[in-house]
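Reviewer 2 asked us to include a model.

Predict the structure of this chain.
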Amino acid sequence: MKNIRLYQNKVFKVGNEVDLDKDTQHHLLKVLRFPIGNIITLFNGDGFDYSVKIVTVKKTCKVEVIAKKKNNSESSLDLTLAQGIAKGEKMDFLIQKAVELGVNRIIPLQTERCVVRLKGEKIAKRIEHWQKIANHACAQSGRAVVVDVATQKTLSELLSVKNPNGFVLHHKATNKLPDIRPTSMATILIGPEGGLSGQEIELANGAGFQSVLLGKRVLRTETASLVAIANMQLLWGS
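Predicted model (structure tokens):
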């Protein structure tokens, strides 16, 4: 039977019993139809996997923690993706795949050419939605950490903080990833549909971001981000 991995924002200790949250209970009992006595894996972001046994499904779904194991699936590369907000399901897809590829944190950016403009309560709701996607992607890909989806920032806010080994992706750059000195920490900056403006690229360069070219072809934003992550993991991570 397929091993089920689920995220829970709870503290686990071997021998203790824990009530699962309502969303997880519904998914486990109504969708997956898991009976009492079955074993599943839970994680809470502390880097460990916890094997738990379902002990009751009355009123609440209670599990007993029976084992704890260190999860060694993380890359040696600490990678941040600062992504211009893409429209529709593109951003959902991009976050899901970026997490599967091993990014450590994601910063949604409002840039000059962003079609999506989030304000007020819509910001919090969208960030919550994206965080759930990230959590599910962590579970699916076997990671035992929580990839943080930060609240949206402007480019100026991003650049006002020092970003060690920042790289801005655009098709007019000349530097290529294989020519760059290996690093254990990096930040990828990429624009939305339409890319970053010339002025935004200049601002990023002025803040220490190196311009990087991924290839001879012009890539869509969701493609470029994932290609960059995959190549950086291959060259500098695991």
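The chain has a mean pLDDT of 91. Residues 54 and 63 are 4 Å apart (CA to CA). We have added this to the supplementary material.
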